[in-house]
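The material for today's practical consists of a large collection of protein records. Read left to right, the C-alpha cells trace the chain's path through space. An example says more than a description, so a record of this kind follows:
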Amino acid sequence: MRRVIAAGVALGVTVLAVLLGGSPAHAAESLRIAVAFDGKDIAGNTVTIDPGKPVELTVTATNSGVAPLRVRSVRVTGVALALTFFAYDTTVPFDVAAGETVTRTLVLDFADLAGQAIGLLPTTVDVVGAQRELLASASTVSDVRGSPWSVYGIFGIALLVVTAIAWATALLALARHRLSANRWRRAVRFLPAGVGTGLVAVVTLSVLRLVPPEPTIEIPVVLGSAVIGLLLGYLTPHPVPAVAPSASDDPTVGVTTQRLGATTEGVG
C-alpha cells in the first residue's frame, strides 16, 4: 500500500511539474503571422473544427528582418494538460523576403480528429523553417466536434476511474482506522485523490465546452484541488488504536474458574 501511495504522490508531483514547467519554444522575432480558419481570424476567437469538413487555413507571414526566411511547413496542434492530443503537419515551402508579406492558403482534412479529441482545446499554428526551427506561432481555442470515445474523451474517463479508486482507498482506510497516526502522512494519503479531482474537473469543463484547459485555468484548479486533498487528510480524526481484551472481559475465564472449583469439590 505504501508503494501505491508513493506512486500516486510521484504522479501528482510530476503532473504539477509538467504544468508549471512546460514552456513553448521561442519563435523567430523577425517573422509575424496572421492566421485565419475559413476566413475567420483566429486571434481572440474560438474556431470550430468539424472533422467531417475540411478547413481552409490561411497564413499571412510578414518578415520584418533584414534576411530572407525559408518556410518549410505549417503545423497545427491541440494541447491539454501539457499533452498533445492532435497534430497536423502540412508541407508548404515558400520564401519570405526581407520586408515582404506573403500569404498562403492550404486545405486541412481533419477527418481523423473525430477519434482524437472533443471539446475546447488550446490550439497552436506554428510556421516551421527549413531546419525545422520555429519561425512564428499563433494561438487560439478550438471547439472540436469529435467523439466522446476519442482519445481525449477516454483519457478523461480513465482519470475519473483512477480518481474514484484513490478516493475509495483513502476513505476505506479512514473508516477502518488504518490511517497513519501522523497527520502529515494522512494528508499525503489524500493528495493523489485531490490531484485527480482537479484533473477530472479540467477535462470535464473542456469536454462540456465551458472552459478551455489553458495553463491559467488548469494550474490553479489542479493546485487548489491538491491543497483541498491535503487539508482533508490532515484534518481527519486520529485513528483509534485497537485495544486487546483484558482477562476480566473474557467470559471464558469465569467459566473455567467455575469448572476448576467444581472439580476440586468433587475430589474432596
About this structure: The domain at 30-144 is CATH 2.60.40.10 (Immunoglobulin-like).
